[in-house]
Structures are given as C-alpha cells and as structure tokens.
Amino acid sequence: MALLEVDDIHVFYGNIEALRGLSIQVDGGEMVAVLGSNGAGKTTTLRTLSGLERARAGSVRFDDQDITRTAAHEIVGRGLCQVPEGRRIFTTLTVAENLALGGYLMRNRQQELRQRRDVVYETFPRLAERRGQLAGTLSGGEQQMLAIGRALMTQPRLITLDEPSLGLSPLLARAILKIVRRFADEGVAVLVVEQNARQALAVADRAYVLETGRIVLEGAASDLAADERVQKAYLGGFEQIVEEEEGREKEKEKEDPSPLGGG
Amino acid sequence: MSIFIQYTVNGLTAGAFYALVALGYTIIYGIIRLINFAHGDLTMVGSFIGWTVLVSMGLQRLPVFLAIALAALASMVVTSVINVGILQFAYKPLLNKSLLAILITALGMSIFLQNAALLVFGAGVQAYPHLVTSSGVFIGGVRISYAQSIFFTISLVLMAGLYSFARFTTLGTAMRALAVDHDAARLMGINVNRVIAIAFILAAILAAAAGVMIGLYYTQINFFLGFLLGLRAFTSAVLGGIGNIPGAMAGGLVIGLLESYCAGYLSGRWQDVFVFGVLITVLIIKPTGLFGERVAERM
Ligand SMILES: Nc1ncnc2c1ncn2[C@@H]1O[C@H](COP(=O)(O)OP(=O)(O)O)[C@@H](O)[C@H]1O
Ligand SMILES: [Mg+2]
C-alpha cells in the first residue's frame, strides 16, 4: 500500500472540470514529479490533496486513511504538507515567526520545536542569518527556502511542492530541487509539480505527465526523460536548450559558491 | 498650563476607552477584512450586562472590587457568546462571498443589537452605581480622580496583554498570519475558523471591559451609546492604520485627547463634528493611518 493513493478524482471550479479522473501514487521515501504545462491542473491537484479544494468524485488516501473530506489543517497534522505555488510566506512576519507557524501543531512541545528549527536552519543557513528579518524583505530564493523550511517544521512524511523553481535562476532552481531530493533520500516522500521538466526529471525517481486534468503518461523519470513525446512537449526544442545553456553560462560568471547560504 | 494638563488627563482616560474598543475593530479587520459596524453596539451591550449584574442583581452591595470583577466577568462572557454567535450565524456564511454583503450584514447587526437593548433595557437612561469614588488627588492644580487612574491603568494593562499575546505567542502570531494569507495558514495546520472565533472573543472581552468602565466612569448609559462610541473608536482605528494593533491604541489616545481639547477650548458641541472631521481627513489624505508607512507590519 502506497503512502499516498489518489484514485480517479474529479475536481470542479463551478462548471469547469479541472481534474478529470486523476490517479497517482507516491510511496514512502520516493520523489515523484508531475509535469504539465500551464493550466494542466497541477496546482488543483496539490490543493485537492491538501484539502483546499474538494474532489466531487474519487478518493484521496494518505497513510491508509481516507482524507478526501478531511479539513486542510487536519491533513497537515497527518503528515502531508504543501509548499504552495508562489511561496505564500507570511510577508509581514519575521523569518523566525514564519517557522514558528510551521511548528504551530507542536507549539506546546518546546524541545521538539527547537530540534525541528535547528534542522531547518542547518538545511538553510541563510534563514538562520535572516531570522529576525521580515519575510517580505527576503529575495525570491530566500523566500522559497523559507516556504520549504516552514513546511519542514510541520514534520511531514509527504511534502508536496508547487513549482518550487518558478521565478528562480536556473542555479537556484537546481539547488532547491537537489535539497528536496535529499529529503526523499532521508525518508520524506516528495511530490513535486513542475513546468521545468528537465530539472525535475533529473532528480525524481518517477514522474507523471498531466494534460488537461488527466495523467497521460507515467514511468521512471529516466524513461520519461528519454521519451520522444516528453522531449517534444516538455523538454523544449533546440532553441530552449540554447537559452537555458546561455543562462547557465551567465550564472557561472557570478557564481555563488553556496546558493543556500552558510559557508 | 494646569488647565491644559487637566484636559490631557481627562482626554487620556476617555482615549483609553476608545483604544480598547478600537482594538476590536482593528483585530477583526486584520483577520477577515471586515469593518465590524456592530462592535460599538457590542460595547454598549457589555455595559448593560455590567449594569444588570451590579444593579438589577444587586451585586453592588458586595465589596467594590469583587462586585466590579464579577460584573466585568459576566459582561465578558455574555459579549463573547454574542460576538461568536454573530460570527457563526451572520458573518461566516458570507466570509468567502461579497465584501459588500458582509459589510451590510455588520450594519444590520449593529441595528439589531441596538434594538435588542432597547427592548430589554428600555429607551431611558440607566444609572450605574457610584462604586469608584470620583474624588481624587490634586497635583499642582490638576485633579486626577481615583476613577481616572484606576480605569486608565486597567486599560493599559489590557492593551499590554493583547499586544503581548499578538506579538509573542504562537496563537497570536497565527492571528497576525491570517492578515496575510488564510490558505497558507491552513497549510501550517492552523484551524482558521477557530482562530477567527478567538479573535472575536478577544474583541468582545476588550469591549466588555470598556463598556463596564464607561458605565462606572460616566455613571449613565443608554441603548444608543454604542453609535458615537463606535464612531470614535473606528476613527481611532483608522487614524492608527486599521489592522495595526499599536496603531489602534495610539489612535484611541489621540482621539481622546483631541476631543478633550476641543471640548475644553472650543465647545463640547463640536466634539462629534471634530471626530468626523478627523475621520474624513485621514481617509482622504492618508488612508493608511498615522502609522501608514508600516502597513507592511499590520497588526
Ligand atoms: N479558482 C479557479 N476558478 C476557476 N477556474 C480555475 C481556478 N483555478 C484554476 N482554474 C482552472 O483550472 C485549470 C487548472 O488550473 P491549475 O490547477 O491552476 O493548473 P496549473 O497549476 O497546472 O497551471 C485551468 O484551466 C484553470 O483555468
Ligand atoms: Mg499552477
């Protein structure tokens, strides 16, 4: 039995059917990518898993329990936490306060709280340096680290990420995905949705391709990366590759030896 | 000079009451973007509950501090229940719908509370018992009554308590987070509906405290006192930058002072015009309030 089992869910916005019978699975300690272009239904999928949208039909099971109708805040307590699209950190609170809210459910367990926070600060030393700063004043990359750090505070067994590389430089995007890969290696399952297929496929174990609310393709990440249809639709043509490489060159010129902060 | 200081003392006392009520406007606005027009009237109801306990139920015969504490406690409990009731039955169904609908509902709740009080307590003025002596001490020609110093101190303690709660506790931090993003708060495991209810209870507790103190200080209350009180408190909240907790406190004290100077140096009849003037001026010139540059740090 997989950690997360999504079975044939249908999600509507009014009359628009955003998810049309979507099914995916994630095992414990596995990193799974969901690829799809703009409007395919990636965000809707993650919002439904987190209880922010409701499936009209189908079921979501997490850790052998039905969470299809469970309230969003309770789902977090079960061990499923989301890093939402656009980060959505609490801009008017400090970095430390944002993390404290990640620890909201364990707010009366000081020692555990401190341990979690230390883990987050070790993972993202940049956050430790900025702990007293208002989150709204952080750079895009730092905000993404905070969004991930905040989710880590909830002690998740499955962490879902909605386009974590959006708006980041290719260098930072790679660093973020690598850190996320490390969570999976440490036993926290990861479900990441991305438009940035190349980088996601490079680190994930398995992947799904989502098109207009349905899974149209699935397989090992390496197989999908080699798949002709995926290459054509998501890995871009020659021109996109040239563009990415150019970005990488530029990045190297001002290379930051440790993009996540610290020494 | 001493007359100026006298007006200042009087103004600060009234201002502390406005600040307590203003905090209710600001807390609720901060978390659900609602200007809760019923809040002034909730304070009025709180005042009447205190009056009921002290006069109708006769608790005024108990030792003064016990009597006042019981009246305040009863008032806090009843106003909390009313406020959460209003939240659940009137506002909650509209929360994610039109902002205008919920504003109009708040106006409706204001009228509802006024009429309920009119029905239960009548249209006349009710007298609060003179429990806190209006005698006091003279310092250099300025009279500071015991009532003034006690009520001002209690108000400051309540304000400090609320500020510390919002600033230093995780639950208070969650309340401030709601001002930014409800869904993101849910994703942290925060039961948003519960935190909103807690905010309504906090607002009610401060309103009840203000209501009972206003009764004891001015010794006369009627069903209509919530309207002007609400207007002054709302102006205070806007002046301090609505949504901003320290701003509401400062705004309340400033409005209390301005009003006292206006009544003292010009005429008491101009007070309300004056408060309206401040409200309109702030809304036109600096809608973010005196602390407008810190809107990034609302609440
Ligand atoms: N709040 C909403 N109201 C109506 N339609 C929506 C809403 N959110 C998303 N949609 C629609 O649902 C579909 C899937 O959107 P989304 O899940 O955001 O896609 P993605 O994240 O893959 O870009 C799109 O057609 C989008 O227009
Ligand atoms: Mg999306």
How would you portray this structure in words?
The complex is a heterodimer of chains A (263) and B (299). With 263 residues, chain A is an alpha/beta fold. Chain A is built from eleven helices and ten strands. Chain A has one domain: 3-Layer(aba) Sandwich (Rossmann fold). Chain A has helices at residues 42-49, 72-78, 95-102, 110-123, 125-129, 140-153, 170-185, 197-203, 221-226, 228-233, 238-253; strands at residues 4-13, 16-26, 31-35, 57-62, 65-66, 80-83, 158-162, 189-194, 206-211, 214-220. Chain B is mainly alpha-helical and 299 residues long. Chain B has a single domain (2-297), classed as ABC transporter involved in vitamin B12 uptake, BtuC, CATH 1.10.3470. Helices cover 72% and strands 4% of the residues of chain B. In chain B, a hairpin with a 2-residue loop joins β2 and β3. In chain B, α1 (2-32) packs across α9, α2 packs parallel to α4 (99-121) and α5 (146-168) runs antiparallel to α8 (192-218). The longest helix of chain B has 31 residues, at 2-32. The chains are: A alpha/beta (263), B mainly alpha (299). At the A-B interface, α2 and α3 of A face α6 and α7 of B. Magnesium ion is lined by residues 42-43, 85, 162 of chain A.
